[in-house]
């Protein structure tokens, strides 16, 4: 059965989601929401950077899209700077009986123990009342630090620590709000950006730590531990998101740690540079400018480095692609799930079924 899908936003992730929906054999794009009035009336294919029309025109008429009664919304709108407004949007969607896969707010990836019940319960109640499901995911928080590490632990005889790392150069990552206001890159070292206020890291990535702990049946010490290392620019740097003057914040290493009896057991960390020459003592990807790494110490010791890059070689562009496609490919499983808030622990194996080049949706060679 083909599922009718609305794409909600056409930004750095949404444009890739549109192409992904169009390519997916089980999905049909029926609507596109945009916040920019200049995009209203434009064809989705053009907004996605395709060389063809898809026959779906973008709109900022929210109710018109809900009235389409789609099976699902792929929601990729910016949420980092409007968390509670985004939660209201998602709650309204599922209350209307529309299943949702969303790239944020990331704290909903696994909100239990991260945000109060009075935030989570209304979402769950609305979803159950509407008979719909909500799944928040992507790549990080998402596949790189939920499905991947938990699948790896199935090979373990004893687990001492699970460590999930992002190691990346953000100089080609076009997210001015995220990089400047949230991470604080290019800001004076004595100015505390949103991300580095006490407790914010645990809210943003605590869902990762707590979901891994839940998957391993661990009871963590409270609260989670936050560790931060900030590095000032040794010279002026230019990035696609803006300039980073000498002496301002230019690199960041942080950890969100789940401990048991004072011992680190689950660690989420980021090593974020804005130039490949920065912080040579920090880990670097084996290949390319960015990767995710999972290290499980115990018996046996397990290590996986997961890299990605686009056809043009850039890992930040492909980061948007893998975020979009983790959502798009999960749509059928989320639609089939029981109503409520669905985490990676609740879903069956999600694959790229029907996406092999040269194959039609039945798996037969398209040339036959």
TrEMBL record:
Protein name as it appears in the record: 2,4-diaminopentanoate dehydrogenase C-terminal domain-containing protein
Domain called 2,4-diaminopentanoate dehydrogenase C-terminal: residue spans: 145-351
Gene3D superfamilies cross-referenced by the UniProt entry: NAD(P)-binding Rossmann-like Domain (3.40.50.720)
CDD domains attached to this UniProt entry: nat-AmDH_N_like
Superkingdom: Bacteria
